[in-house]
Amino acid sequence: MRKFDVLIIGAGAAGLMCAHIAGKRGRSVLLLDHAKKPAEKIRISGGGRCNFTNHYSSPSAFISNNPHFCKSIFSRYTQRDFIELVRSHKIDFHEKKLGQLFCDNSAQDIIKMLLDECDRANVILQLETYIKTIEASGSGYKVSVKAIDAIEAIECESLVIATGGLSIPKIGASRFGYDIAQQFGLKVTSLKPALVPLTFHSEFLDRCRALSGISVDAEISFGTICFRKGLLFTHRGLSGPSVLQISSYWDENREITINLLPELDLIDFLKRCKSESPKQSIHTALSQHLPKRLAEDILNELGLAGRLADLSHAKLQILSERIHKWLVIPNGTEGYRTAEVTCGGVDVDSISAKTMQSKSQEGLYFIGEVIDVTGHLGGYNFQWAWSSGFVAGQNV
Length: 396
Ligand SMILES: Cc1cc2nc3c(=O)[nH]c(=O)nc-3n(C[C@H](O)[C@H](O)[C@H](O)COP(=O)(O)OP(=O)(O)OC[C@H]3O[C@@H](n4cnc5c(N)ncnc54)[C@H](O)[C@@H]3O)c2cc1C
Fold this sequence. Notes:
Blueprint: E1 2-9, H1 13-24, E2 29-32, H2 40-44, E3 51-54, E4 62-63, H3 69-76, H4 79-88, E5 93-95, E6 100-103, H5 108-120, E7 124-126, E8 129-137, E9 140-147, E10 150-161, H6 176-183, E11 192-194, E12 198-199, H7 202-210, E13 215-216, E14 219-222, E15 225-228, E16 231-234, E17 237-239, H8 241-247, E18 256-259, H9 266-276, H10 282-287, H11 292-302, H12 313-324, E19 326-328, E20 332-333, E21 341-343, E22 364-366, E23 374-375, H13 380-395
Parallel strand pairs: 1-2, 1-10, 2-7, 10-22
Antiparallel strand pairs: 3-6, 4-23, 5-6, 8-9, 9-10, 11-21, 12-20, 13-16, 14-15, 14-18, 16-17, 18-19
Helix pairs in contact: 1-5, 1-13, 3-13, 9-12
The structure holds flavin-adenine dinucleotide.
């Protein structure tokens, strides 16, 4: 039977971070994953360039049942600390927009950096290994694993669960972390796909299909939450950064509000057009601010056409309302197949923010996406993986 100080399950962003930090403290570390390659999500992230953090990362960009939980964790390992690590490996990167930092070259640079750090810290990485059972035993854990047809028992003092969320099952996502939490009596909050395109009933879907490819700088809100980062019509519904962001907050069967022209007072603009060029068509006027096909679609829906001079103030007002407050009810999301993250997870109130250790189960740690801390789009989810992985790495 092999024995390690620390056994980490999940060689993704959080697991790799935790592994090298613990290894550098002199702890013997075994890092296991059932996938053929480590860090597959880093590889596919950010369109292959990994949006590895955000200059403006702060706790307000995260959703959790207890929004205070992550504060001290982020303060102990900040975006500046990770940027320093990236710089020390001479990885070139750039800010795309809104503080989002991407590799110039490839997400593989970040994977190589983490693997090199693990190497330096003498971490043993073992892939294609399947966990059969986990039992608490004495002052640690006994884990039965299957690799290359042989079953082996491994003992460890500290067991770290870094198995991520449910999104993209075809590259290794599993329920494992939630099941282990429940096995040891920790609560798991309700789970839903997040940062995911929204889908619609057939009538609205037909319109999305007809408008597919059009993107607008729209503002989307759900209750008091509002994002203005772009909306894209697709063959499957609505996507784009604003839609992905709002999906993390949206509740089933509830409407979202789309403001297609957040910068403009449309009624004011239309009244001006009407008095200055009354012969101008409503379509021409609206197309000055919206893509032509979208303007046409909305005017058709409202049955509006012809010269501005012939349209009453009431009709222009209806159009303006429709553009600024378009209420739509999604019938669902594209689900875990395309979601970037899982919203919800292991209840933060059952974990110590000082160590990432379960409050009730000594020696059992949770880090990364498996926990009920979900970031906005823009490099925040990786920052959570780095920060929570670091804090656990210092304590296991
Ligand atoms: C398409 C896509 C693009 C993304 N782009 C970005 C981005 O640019 N910026 C950003 O901040 N976030 C991005 N994310 C989110 C980010 O990838 C995750 O939040 C982050 O990877 C979570 O890190 P983690 O270590 O907790 O989990 P993961 O990185 O998912 O790692 C979990 C690991 O556990 C392993 N595992 C799972 N179950 C088991 C099991 N039963 N036994 C053994 N091993 C197991 C998996 O194989 C995996 O290697 C993106 C996500 C997706 C899907």
